[in-house]
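Changelog-linked ticket: manganese (II) ion example.
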Amino acid sequence: MPLTSRLHDLGLRALDSFAIELPSWGFANTGTRFGKFIQPAAATTTPEKLADAGEVHKFTGCCPTVAVHVLWDFPNGAADVPGLEKTAQSCGVKIGAINPNVFQDQIYKHGSLGSPDPEARRAALSHILDCVEIQRLTGSRDLSLWFADGTSYPGSGSIRQRKQWFTEGLQAVHAALSGNQRMLVEYKPFEPAFYATDIADWGMSYIYSKHAGPRAKVLVDTGHHYQAQNIEQIVAWLLDLDMLGGFHFNDRRYADDDLTMGSIDPYQVFRIFHEILHFEWETGKRADIAYMIDQSHNLKGKIEAMIQTVSTAMELYAKAALVDHSKLADAQTKCALVDAESCLKDAFSLDVRGVIRDWAVSKGLPADPMDAFRQSGYLETATVERGAKNMASVSSYA
Ligand code: RM4
Ligand code: MN
Ligand code: MN
């Protein structure tokens, strides 16, 4: 059944205010700990990552910024900023969230800001402060912090001492922020630490953020929860507390699988968007949230998978915008349980693909971004240009 013109317009308006950030690392060859399956067209340099991200934005019109991981993308630190900013601009995108890498160097074997080694703590803080400088130069609003820190055996570290080191480190980071800059504190229950992760859940992120200062907010990566956890409830709480800074979207069946958003459980993403849009309806204010994708596709074509992701995000956001909020609020007040639940189910089951197509055409974008990308010949050219370099790179687990 086609949408009524009222719902159609509502969907169009919702899309006008929706944008989602792409991850630079989603365009490079990545893998599992058992190995990488190399794609001949994968990006081999930061300019190539930005070019690929630019393609996704060119065809979807919905992802104007690209998150970067500093050691992977800015090997010379701040010196790389002018060149890469220019490259980004020529690719039709901008540099987005700045992600420090405080997990790969040997010094971080026992942690970064939470390491018992003061040298490691100093190195981590100094790298993060360099990232704040990059953030200033690029004009990026968000510094996005993820830490691999934790311990893997009972008794092998002081949980409270590590918490205190983290609190101090995050306070020092906060003190370096200025203007409109924010720091987003991401949590993850396990991996690579398998006993006690130093920022394991949203409560810990919240407390660290509160101790750091008002520019610190919580970042929710959808893959970073235990199976039964109610993510939209966390989202609703953080909204209510004005502490929700942003998202890393991805899907999973088991743990931090980084599968394509909505591939396993699209209703989950819909429920998250619904909590946000219901909050906006109720309060009359815009939720100030950075929507970001954190996925690296090892098996699917990287650019195609990213176009699929962005299209899915738009669909689920548009569906959530079609919930009848006043009917829902009324049903909730009356404890009309079936009616209340149906408000969500009804919106979720609407076919909004026509809205997305009309929105795209109204912006001068292709009605079918996947098809337009496939017709463009970009992948074939990238395969020829990058193939030899990619095939020369090998990786194995041991
Ligand atoms: C983590 C997490 C972070 C990402 C690192 C490299 O699992 O999701 O956001 O930056 O991986
Ligand atoms: Mn993440
Ligand atoms: Mn992750």
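Closing comment: Example verified and attached. The first strand starts at residue 22 and ends at 23. The first helix runs from residue 5 to 16.
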